Amino acid sequence: MKRAKRIVWKVFPFEMYDLESIQSWLEDRAKEGLFLQGFILRWAKFTVGTPQTIRYRLEPAAEAEPDKEKLDLYAQYGWDYVATWSNEYYIFMADDENARELYTDPHTLAIPMRKRLRSRCFWTLFGAVFWLANLVGLFVAAFWNGYPLLNWIQAGTIQCAIVVILLLIEIFSLVGQFAHYSKLKTSLKKGKPIRSGAVYGKQVRRWYLSFAATMILIISLLFYPVFLGNQETGMQLPEYEGNLPFLQISDFEEEPLQIGGFFYDGCDQGNYLVWQSDVLAPKQWKLTQLADTVPPRADGGGFYWVEYYQAKSSAIASRLGYELLVKYPRSEGCKEEILSLGEDIYGVYSQTEGKQYLLLQKDTQVEMIYYNGNVSLKPLASEYLQAWERS
């Protein structure tokens, strides 16, 4: 029984424009006893045999495989069809050093290459413009509503930075490919042949470096929230046993289960605590409490929520305070009152049509409180500051 040939798979570390390096790389593999059989994505399939000198040539692919007429003609010249790479190129091989070149005149090769290269130039340039538009859109979306830092932190600073870097890598890669395709098209037009024997080590190292960097960034983007702390976590408030850096409704509403008092909703939208972390704001807390009176009051009871941030620096905290004002009370046209709470403490009380907001900021801590119940938040500012110290 005939023994099956051993198969070896190797990563194919070249872009489609680098024809000279591709031909040289395949010929060097043949000298090692590895002979090309085909491709699956970025992997080249080789059979292992006796090392020998083989010439490889690439030409533009019109279909999935060359027609019989072409195969017969090339066979007469001493060239055998090996595989089609990515529906872009046919790859032929010859083990006869005297086999005539498939294209003795570069201008002849330029004819079938012209349309393919024009198409590749268009799509690489289109891709670069498309991803550049996405990058611009990302920043426009962050700045459009007036609170970019909040958007950035809530989405995850590291994740956003990774997305920006990936977009930049893709843009520069496509711009580089466009330049190389344009150069190849010009070279063929001038009659310069595609030669073998190219030194491709630099291109291979660059491809592996780019590929490794991209994979590391993608894996980091996918798993950073899980392993490094930016994953949002939450639970019902009664389940939390630690100290919170803010008050709850029960801290300022008396006898919550009596007539005129408040009853806490147990669903996820009420009495629910969420925390998260980010490199710019290591501590983020959010509390939502829905409340109703027993029996129900005409005003519908109250709705209470808190956003608390402990930022990396006082400058970041100050900016977060400004953006919280822009996002909430100022977007609703609330009247603002600056509170005198002591040195280095910034406090703003805002209200309109039964809604009230309280913003507090000191050093690296900033907090926004909203409440539409009957109790005023304004005299509670000092109690909120004490809650910071307890936590």
Architecture overview:
This protein has 391 residues and is of the alpha+beta class. It folds into 3 domains: 88 residues, no CATH class; 122 residues, no CATH class; 158 residues, Protein Transport Mog1p, Chain A (3-Layer(aba) Sandwich). 40% of the residues lie in helices and 24% in strands. Strands 7, 8, 9, 10, 11, 12, 13, 14 and 15 form a 9-stranded antiparallel beta sheet that branches. The protein starts with 6 loop residues before the first strand and ends with a helix.
Write the layout of secondary structure elements.
Blueprint: E1 7-11, H1 19-31, E2 34-40, E3 43-48, E4 55-60, H2 68-77, E5 80-85, E6 89-94, H3 106-144, H4 148-155, H5 157-189, H6 201-227, E7 233-236, H7 249-252, E8 263-264, E9 272-276, E10 283-292, E11 302-310, H8 314-327, E12 335-339, E13 345-352, E14 355-362, E15 365-371, H9 381-390
Supply the key terms.
391 residues, Protein Transport Mog1p, Chain A, 3 domains, nine-stranded antiparallel beta sheet, three-stranded antiparallel beta sheet, 40% helix, elongated
Please sum up the structure shown.
With 391 residues, the protein is an alpha+beta fold. The chain has helices at 19-31, 68-77, 106-144, 148-155, 157-189, 201-227, 249-252, 314-327, 381-390, and strands at residues 7-11, 34-40, 43-48, 55-60, 80-85, 89-94, 233-236, 263-264, 272-276, 283-292, 302-310, 335-339, 345-352, 355-362, 365-371. The strands form three sheets. Strands 7, 8, 9, 10, 11, 12, 13, 14 and 15 form a nine-stranded antiparallel β-sheet that branches.
Order of helices and strands: EHEEEHEEHHHHEHEEEEHEEEEH
Q: Remind me, CATH topology of the largest domain?
A: Protein Transport Mog1p, Chain A
Number of discrete helical segments:
9
Question: What is the oligomeric state here?
Answer: single chain
For the sheet with most strands, the description reads: 9 strands, antiparallel
Poorly predicted sequence stretches spanning 5 or more consecutive residues: 256-262, 264-269
- C-alpha geometry: elongated
- The CATH architecture designation of the largest domain is 3-Layer(aba) Sandwich
- Structural class computed from helices and strand pairing: alpha+beta
Tell me how many strands there are.
15
Average pLDDT across residues? 82
* C-alpha end-to-end distance: 78 Å
Strand content: 15-25%
Which range best describes the helical content: under 10%, 10-25%, 25-40%, 40-55%, 55-70% or over 70%? 40-55%
User: What's the CATH class label of the largest domain?
Assistant: Alpha Beta
Q: What is the alpha-carbon Rg in Å?
A: 33 Å
